[in-house]
Amino acid sequence: MKQRIEYIDAIKGLAIFLMVMGHAIAWNYDDYNAVCNFHPEQTINVKMGGDLVTYLFFPYAIIFYGIRFFDV
Predict the structure, then answer these.
(1) Is residue 40 one of the residues assigned to a domain?
(2) Would you list the DSSP string of 4-67?
(3) How far apart are CA 62 and CA 65, in angstroms?
(4) Residue 42 to residues 8, 14, 45, 48, 62: CA-CA distances in angstroms?
(5) pLDDT tens digit sequence for 6-60
(6) What is the pTM of this model?
(7) What is residue 30's predicted lDDT score, i.e. its pLDDT?
């Protein structure tokens, strides 16, 4: 049996957490365009939610891509 690399498991756990949080924030919006598109008339809540989704979605995709070869 292979020895598990603990920090790889921790990185995978962080990526899963970011994925769940990003989806939870995105599902709170009725209009998905409000999450991704930024218009001057949008309230600060919508703009901040869009920023959060952007900063949560992209890192976990990169993390999953980077650790996909580690079969632990």
Answers:
(1) yes
(2) P-HHHHHHHHHHHHHHHHHHHHHTT-S-THHHH---TTS-HHHHHHHHHHHHHHHHHHHHHHHT
(3) 5
(4) 39, 31, 8, 10, 29
(5) 888 888 888 888 778 777 776 776 665 555 555 556 555 555 556 666 666 677 7
(6) 0.56
(7) 65
Please say whether the beta carbons of 13 and 37 come within 8 A.
Answer: no
Quick one: tokens of 49? 């939610």
The total number of structural domains that make up the chain? 1
Query: By residue range, what is the domain housing residue 15?
Result: 1-22+32-70
Token representation of residue 15: 């990526």
Is position 27 within any domain? no
Please check whether residue 4 lies inside any domain of the structure.
yes
Asked if residue 63 is part of any domain, the answer here is yes
